[in-house]
């Protein structure tokens, strides 16, 4: 699954069902309320979208909705969405990993750890509309950083082609919650790295680089993959930040879908289904790739 | 005489203001098996980690085969090390773990394979090559860790409490296996442990450590029978300790619980009236009077524990307890609690601890 | 080791710079409403706005309702799965992580289509119905965090033994859950609750698409029409998030220590 670090998901799931089996026949009744809830408010709504994207207005089967996705403007929206998500997930993983590394293994004083983790908890939840405001107030045309760079250093970032309402700007903004999210997930994984591994490697003649390449990174790889998959889905589905930043001016998929649902732009509801279905497919593929890579790289885990 | 193979000279280590190791000196001959024995916090692991290169001595130096390695990085020392537990790389198979040292040194695949097969045979786990560490028992993991440490043919082998995480039975069989392999390869070995039985059974020599210093260095026989300090006497083996008062130093008489004991020649330099501790190994004490004993004390049976082949008897002498073991004898029932009893021992077995 | 430490400080410094700048920038911007001098005017405008008060109150109520329903749904389920259906854990984990994979906008789109006025369950037909639907949506969003927190909390206590002890004293299921299990996982539940609060209070997409007068859409609207007030709102929202996280830290101090688990 996507959140991987917390407790080594999957490793101890096979807890023996001690003596429960023989009289288990009605035990499942206890989770019926939950399953009913999940069915009504999670599974069925999603299925409705999936089915709807293959239906005509009067309920017949069609591939026309899906085919309609393949028009330049929609393809372009998917493309920029995927690019932003990949970029913000990759950079989020990279910088988040470096910060987590610095705090856990990099020899920083121990008291720094707690504030960094607390701040990560706050920043990873500081998303949506207020985040957009914060970046507008900082990197917008009258933002603090923009003005400081212009007035003190004579650098006009907007003159150099920077635009907050763009691929780069949105990626920069998303990193504000992507990096701390990585820190939160990777820190426990780094805590799990035993000092003995590093020492054993160096006793056997390995350099620091060899240790990372042959031991540390392979061990951390599943956590990093999981983080990437989560970060990707996180930014691919994000609406609020982008909408508050750009209104409808930047055509990324969730904004397109938002406008479609509101009835602002497109009038065909089934194209909306197809747009949403496309989003499920993209995050689904991302997670499938993750699970596939993870099972390949985790043969050594119980 | 040839120079020692490993020489630790005047090594000191401080963390902040606490001195963990003070003026530690030890020479180890080639092929020798030396144990560092002591309670936790005595500095034994710190000394080992300085030999390994994980800690830098505050002063002094460490020489291996005539070369000063004090400032060398761990990965340049060519020393093998086995850790307490769980130090196998979990993402690598047994064979990959064992071959790791050769791989990072750039050995050819054929060479690695050959050496791995050799090492697997040495630790008698030839069929485990493709297992992952989590599929092995604790004892098997430590054997693989040993093979991994030995595979690159290190000059020196360091063992950092490699048996402490294992259960008792495996601990005994593995320590015998380690000793066999060590003798077979003739590799100079330093072994750190807090378990005196382990140290006594496995070592050529033992350095008993306390408070960052070596209290005594000697063969297991010397350490056990002729402890140089009170700490060594107490830490190695079990002791019965009696409190006595010197009556006549020249004649060697001591009063214990209002009874006179004669310890000729053991009290030189003591003053009359001085308080002493007299220590006796349990195996040196017998119940009842024996022909070869020249000293005896009487008391009362305080406790009898039937342990199967052995019966442990505790005898109260004044406010002190002396415990001794006797073999079970089906025709003679053990004494009853409360009975008066006499213990006897040879005065030369008494350790006088000032 | 020395080189490591230098790099660590560099990474940390860059991180602090990146995260501090937007916060400082926002704070500075929010104080500039009055020309030529720093003032708290933007805050007074925002706080004095009746729509702010209404929407904020609405979102607080929604968050509280979400927490209550979420706890009632998650605690008994997680407890039951631990006690009786350990084989179901992978499945439960899969279900509870789905909301992280399916974008919220897709879920709410499904709601709109599934529960519209002409459907079998016309929740969107009335304001109350829509409120309930939105609240269920929030429960779904909070599910991954809530379930995980409670499940981790349950791991720290011996569920089976506690249950048997309570049963041997004659307690029924409701008593066991409310008097034995819930107090023991209270810290985990509270952590999940504060996180849920932080998520719900600023949520935008679901509320906007279901047309409810929540705080998220209000902020967006204000952002589209004003210059300095949004920055003040962002500062307020950040403070609320910080408060929630601080409360999690505070209650975590009272968590029972997780015993060593045999793997």
What does this protein structure show overall?
The complex is a heterotrimer of chains A (302), B (354) and C (263). With 302 residues, chain A is mainly α. Chain A folds into 2 domains: 33 residues; 229 residues, MetI-like (MetI-like fold, Orthogonal Bundle), CATH 1.10.3720.10. In chain A, 67% of the residues lie in helices and 0% in strands. Chain A contains 12 helices and no strands. The radius of gyration of chain A is 23 Å and the shape is globular. Chain A starts with 31 loop residues before the first helix and ends in a 5-residue tail after the last helix. With 354 residues, chain B is of the alpha+beta class. Chain B has 8 helices and 20 strands. The longest helix of chain B has 18 residues. Chain B is globular and about 75 Å long. The model of chain B has no long low-confidence stretch (mean pLDDT 89). Chain C is mostly helical and 263 residues long. Chain C contains 12 helices and no strands. The two termini of chain C are 34 Å apart. In chain C, helix 1 crosses helix 12, helix 4 crosses helix 6 and helix 7 crosses helix 8. At the A-C interface, helix 1, helix 3, helix 4, helix 5 and helix 7 of A face helix 1, helix 3, helix 4, helix 5 and helix 6 of C.
Shape call of chain A: globular
Radius of gyration of chain C: 22 Å
CATH homologous superfamily label of the largest domain in chain A: MetI-like
Low-confidence stretches of chain A: 1-21
The number of distinct structural domains of chain A comes to 2
- The level 1 CATH classification of chain C is Mainly Alpha
What is the C-level CATH assignment of the largest domain in chain A? Mainly Alpha
- pLDDT < 50 runs, ≥5 residues of chain C: 259-263
Cα gyration radius of chain A (Å): 23 Å
Helix content range of chain A? 55-70%
The average pLDDT of chain A is 84
Net shape of chain C: globular
Largest two-chain interface: A-C, 99 and 93 residues
Biggest sheet descriptor of chain A: none
